Amino acid sequence: MATLEASSGPGYTTTENGNGPAPPLPSSSPAPSIPSSRPPAVETADPPPVEAPTTAGPVPPPEYEFDEGGVPVFRPTTEQFANFEKFIKSIEGIGAEAGIVKVVPPKAWKDALPDVRTALASLKIKKAMKQSISGGSLPSGCFFQMNEDHCRTYTVQEWYEASQSGQYQAPRFNEEGRAVFDPLRTKRRPTKDISDVHDPVARVAPELAMNPIGEGSAMQPQCNSSITFDLEETSSGFDKDHCSRLERHYWRNVTFAAPLYGADMLGSLFDHPTIEEAARDIPWNLTRLPNLLNRVNLKLPGVNLPYLYFGMWKSTFAWHVEDMDLYSINYIHFGAPKQWYVIPQESRGRFETAMQSNFRNDHAKCNQFLRHKSSICSPKVLERKGIKVNRVVQHAGEFMITFPFGYHQGYNMGFNCAESVNFATDSWIPIGKQATFCPCVPDSVRLDVSALFDPPVVRKIKLVVPNGPSPNKRERENSENGDFETNSTAQARPVLAPKKRRKVKAATSSNVPNSKDSMPASEREKSPVPAMKCVLCPTTSGLLLPTDKPNVWAHRSCATFIPETRVEAHPMDAGLEIVIGIDAIAKARWRLKCAICRVKGLKLPKSGLGACIQCAKGRCVVAYHVTCAMEADQIYTNDAQENPHCF
Hints:
By secondary structure, the chain is α+β, with helices and mostly antiparallel strands. Helices cover 21% and strands 19% of the residues. It is elongated.
């Protein structure tokens, strides 16, 4: 199991913004099992100089301060920001209490980011959602969000133009603080065939409507995928007063003018193919984030593969926690800020009780309804019930990190592009083992944490020396207790056999004893021991390795060539090896029939016998067991390409 480093990195301090420590967060309800790393209080008088400790201790957090909304804001130095795992380790205690933290990267890191215009020009928003929010019979201040597929594909330029027009545009405010919207801009078009007053893109981009619609265009105006808007300009103008006015306007008009949200798009602007490799190798690249989920042979979109999110004014994410109670990290590449609401650990129990009361019908159908991401509740409603709600505004170029059990909700203040992914630390493993999931959601993430991160169960085995002298009683007892003794003078090669007593069937002849207990001791010792078999092939010879499944063995060669399996060092003994990934083998691979076994005339079951590999040369689909192909000299590997070829 991978472990995180616990040593402190350079440049870490224990004070907060140079003005003394921040007030401690209360913790009246049970907090997650994450070790606390809150710095001790600093005395007002000058303390005597203290020498640096010689032994490794808890990693102190970098300097931070509390935002007006109660959320910790970290501003790490370049040295502190260079190691993601050490940074998360140093703030775990603070983040677990607050539920969420904001991280402002150093300026040097921002300056090193590549230009994403080329990547944006090649992106298409194919799975946009139309978000309908309604109150219905719910209590005042509570709403139900329903996401509907918006059957249209947008380029990023089209999405920007749509977000600046019609019902999707963010309001501006006059001197009196009243919302003001730009009037719909139209342009006289040459023919009536291409007029489409319902298309917001045509209103703000009249030059696009000048192009005649060709055949097969599905009545969509032709658009240039190049990026013409200014990325920096989309992020400017959102000062504190403007964000406060947008927040008031949001809750007063939350049920009007359903917005669009381009969410859950698999991809990354940190690691896009159009970006040079040197520019991708930067700290906090969400595609290459060092954590436990990236150290297992598992790729899950949105979990350890990042998603892109293209928002516009009022696009919303409802109250929820992350799947499997994982950590999450969110970064805004450019555009308008996000407004976040979060429940600290001290109010988690009361929050869940209040939401169950406000959304009784949903809770009656599913006790995990808060994982549906469909329940919206105003923070004022929760605060009237004594529930503390922290809030923070995330601007472009800033990270938000949510911690296990951290309920959060929010919305976008305008056109923006964000990237998000889940991650895990060592302290999450016991949390993940107890995490629940919602059976109502078909794409809900489910992880077998014990199978992924716990060491495999190693059963006791005894050593049998064929054709050698029978061990005496003491040697047999030592063998059964796990104390293995070998006869250095034995000529035969020792093999490992499972500790399993041979069952002797009752015989009808009176000359043959009907039970093993009636056999002489010498005869019992001469009874054959069942040979171990490879789960991946029918070959009984060759060295077998244990697997991550109990009582299952495999050849090293089979595990090397089958794509889903691999050979690693045994977690209990670095001198041994173990085969990992038996359960990951696809069902179709188990059903493949070996061509050599058919020639031999073996009767193969319908499900096959072991797992086969297929030829990778051209369109050849011939299947072989690895050992069968090796014995028949039908396998070939190239140094530059490890795929097996047959001839």
